Amino acid sequence: MKTDYDILIVGGGMVGATMAYALSPLPLRIGVIEAVPFKSDSQPSYDDRAIALAYGSAKIFESMGLWDLLDDKVSPIKRIHVSDRGHFGVARIDSTEEKVDALGYVVENRVVGAVLADALPRLENVELICPATVTQVELDSERANLTIEQEGKQQQLASKLVIAADGGNSVVRKLLEIPTRSWDYGQTALIANVSSERYHQGVAYERFTDSGPVALLPNSYAATEDPNRCSLVWTVRSGDQDRVLSLNDKEFLSELQQRFGYRLGELKKVGRRNAYPLKLVRAKQQVKPRLALIGNAAHTLHPIAGQGFNLGLRDVAVLADVVADAVANGQDLGATEVMQRYADWRNWDHRKVIGFTDSLARLFSNPLATVALARNIGLFGVDVLPPLKRLLTRQTMGLSGRLPRLAMGLPLLKGGQHG
Questions:
Q1: What is the pLDDT of residue 81?
Q2: Where in the chain are all domains bearing CATH 3.50.50.60?
Q3: What are the phi and psi torsion angles at 287 (to 5°)?
Q4: What pLDDT does residue 224 have?
Q5: Confidence of residue 358 (pLDDT cuts 50, 70, 90)
Q6: What CA–CA distance (Å, rounded) separates 11 from 130?
Q7: I want to staple 188 with a disulfide (CB 3.0 to 4.6 A). Which of 60, 157, 241, 250 is the partner?
Q8: Cβ neighbours of residue 369 under 8 Å, at least 6 residues apart?
C-alpha cells in the first residue's frame, strides 16, 4: 500500500494539534492539514475563551511532556460550588477529599494554542500542511485519498488513516455525508473575563438560573496582574444575547450580579465579550474504514460542567493508544477492526458525558416547581452522600471508566517521551 502519509489529521486546532503531538513518538509519517496559518490570531480554537481542564486531561498533557510548558499559565480549581438560584440545593466538591492538589485547571485557549503551535514544527515526523483546505475525501479498501487546495492549486494526498479534527462544522464529515443528530438549546453562551471584589480562592462556581447556567472559573495564574480575575460563561436565552451584549460595563455587571449573587462580593470589571450559540451535535458514525472523527467533529456539547474539550482530549488519548497497538502488532492503521476498537472504547464515555451534560442543561432550565424540588434534592444528595459525590467527582475529573495509557501517566511507547 503506497501512501504519502501514514496518518493525515484534518484540523490543526487544539484537538488536532494535540492528536499530532500524541502520535509523534510512533514511527509514522503524519500530516496536519489546517486552513489557517499556525500562530495566527485567526485560528478559531485559539481565541480568548478559557477551558476547564479536568485533572485527567492535565495528566494527558503531562504524559506527552507538555505540562511543564503550561503549569505556570493555569489556575488550579481547588473546589467546585454548584447552586440553583432561588432554591436550597447546593453541592460542594473539594480537592482535599480526592487527595489531589486540584480537581482541574483553568487555562486560556490561546495559551494552549501557543504551546502547541511552538511544539509541532519541532517534530521531525509531523508535517504542517497549511494554509490548505480539503475539497474532496475518498475512502477505499487500500487508502484514503484527499484533494486539498493550497495557494490556488489542487493537490492529491493519500494516507492509511484520516483523522477528522476540524470542529463542529467539520468539512470532512460533510464531504463524506455523515449524518448528525442535533438539538438547539435555544441558548447562547456569553464569554468574558470578570474581576470580583473578593479573591476566588480557587473555587469554580456553577450557578443554575432559569435562563441557563452562570459559571465563574478562577483564572488568575501567576503571570496575571489581577488575582481576582475569573472566566465567565453566562448562558442567556437566544434572542436576548444582543440586548445583554449592548449593555455598558456597569449595566452588564449589574445584571450579572443579579444572576450570580454575591459569593465573590461585588463584580468590579468586565473585559471583551463574545457570544456563541449552544447546540448539541453528535455524528451518527464516529468511524468508517480509514476514518476517525474526534473532538467537536464527532460531538459538540453544551458547556455546562465544562466537559467538551476534555471529552475531545480523551478521544485523542484513546485513538493514540489504539494506533500505538496497531503499529506494535503490524496492523493496517485504517482497518475496520482497528477503527471499531476505537469506536467501541469511546462509545461509553461519549454516551455518559453527552447524556450527563444534556440532562443537566434541560433539567436546570425547567421552570416547573416539582422539577425544581427534585433537582435540589439531587444537589443536596450529592453534597451529603459520599458514594454519590465520589461518582460525580471522578467523572468531573475525567477519571471514570477504562483509561488510556496517556491518562494514566504512561507514555505510548517505552522510552517514548518527547525530548
A1: 87
A2: 5-182+279-408
A3: -140, 160
A4: 62
A5: low
A6: 10
A7: 241
A8: none
At 220-246, the pLDDT tens digits run 875 567 889 999 999 999 999 999 999
User: Distance between CA 9 and CA 161 in Å, rounded?
Assistant: 8
CA 121 remoteness from chain centre: 23
Q: Give long-range contacts, CB 8 A cutoff, 24+ apart: 344-348.
A: 345/318, 345/402, 345/404, 346/286, 346/314, 346/315, 346/318, 347/286, 348/401, 348/402
CATH 3.30.9.10 occupies which residues in the chain? Answer: 185-275
Query: Across residues 9-16, what is the average pLDDT?
Result: 96
- Residue 222, pLDDT score: 55
Longest dimension (CA), the chain: 64
DSSP letters, 287-299, are EETTEEE-GGGTE
Reply yes or no on whether the pLDDT at 44 is more than 50: no
Is residue 202's pLDDT more than 80? yes
C-alpha cell at 188: 447562547
Strands annotated E in 251-407: 267-270, 274-283, 287-288, 291-293, 299-300
Alpha helices in 120-248 (DSSP H): 171-175, 241-246
Give me the amino acid identity at 106.
V
What does the block give as the cell for 198? 473578593
Count of other CB atoms within 10 angstroms of residue 176: 18
Contacts with 244 (C-beta within 8 Å, 6 or more apart), sequence order: 190, 234, 236, 252, 255
Helices (H), ranges, 183-233: none
State residue 387's pLDDT score.
52
Asked if the 185-275 domain carries CATH number 3.30.9.10, the reply is yes
Spatial separation of the C-alpha atoms in residues 117 and 149, rounded to whole Å:
22
Q: Which three cell numbers stand for residue 141?
A: 479498501
Chain length of the chain: 419
- Looking at CATH, the fold of the domain delimited by 5-182+279-408 is given as FAD/NAD(P)-binding domain (3.50.50)
Rounded distance, CA 362 to CA 212, Å?
9
According to the model, what pLDDT value does residue 2 have? 58
- Looking only at the bridges linking them, the beta strands covering 104-108 and 229-237 are unpaired
**Residue 127, Cβ neighbours under 10 Å: how many?**
18
| Side chain identity at residue 248, one-letter code | N
Confidence of residue 45 (pLDDT cuts 50, 70, 90): very low
Q: Which residues contact 204 (CB under 8 A, 6 or more apart)?
A: 52, 77, 79, 80, 81, 103, 104, 106, 215, 216, 217, 218
